[in-house]
Design brief:
Low-confidence stretches: none
Bound molecules: zinc ion
Number of helices: 4
Strand order of the largest sheet: 1-2
Shape: elongated
Helix content: 55-70%
Oligomer: single chain
Structural class: mainly alpha
Largest sheet: 2 strands, antiparallel
Mean pLDDT: 80
């Protein structure tokens, strides 16, 4: 059994997905939450695949509608409307595909940046400089 610390009061040996024996705080199962979370690039990959499939299917279908029924005088106007909608759906998904690729690039660029931001020593020295700026030096004894 995996025990955890209460995030509110710090009491040890608590069961996840129960209430803290000391302060009554609800303890979520953090290991389960992490497993359930799907990384954004997985969603982007799925979106890309679905967009490509939709583009191929809608353009193929509209082409077939025009090729088989398009030049017959008996063709109902709804056939043309349907073919038009299929072309529109294909075009919308080309847009989605382009946007998904841009998001993918942004995500790839962002991920190493956020990692280096938290670990670079420049971040620490910057915050030290900020602390020095904010500190009150008025009660410092005058130099002898
Ligand atoms: Zn607690």
């Amino acid at each position: 059994m995996n025990y955890m610390f209460c995030p509110r009061c710090g009491k040890a040996e608590q069961l996840p997905e129960s209430y803290c024996r000391q302060c009554g705080f609800f303890l979520p199962d953090l290991s389960k939450l992490e497993k359930r979370e799907i990384p954004p690039d997985e969603h982007l990959k799925a979106n890309t695949a679905l967009s490509v499939l939709t583009i191929i299917a809608s353009f193929t279908l509209s082409f077939l509608l025009f090729a088989i029924l398009g030049f017959s005088s008996a063709t109902h106007p709804l056939i043309y409307a349907t073919a038009g909608i299929l072309i529109a759906i294909g075009s919308w998904h080309i847009q989605t595909l382009i946007r998904t690729q841009k998001l993918k690039q942004q995500w790839k660029r962002r991920t190493p940046l956020t990692e280096s931001e938290t670990s670079t020593p420049t971040f620490k020295s910057a915050s030290t400089a900020k602390l020095l700026d904010q500190s009150d030096l008025s009660d410092t004894p005058p130099p002898v």
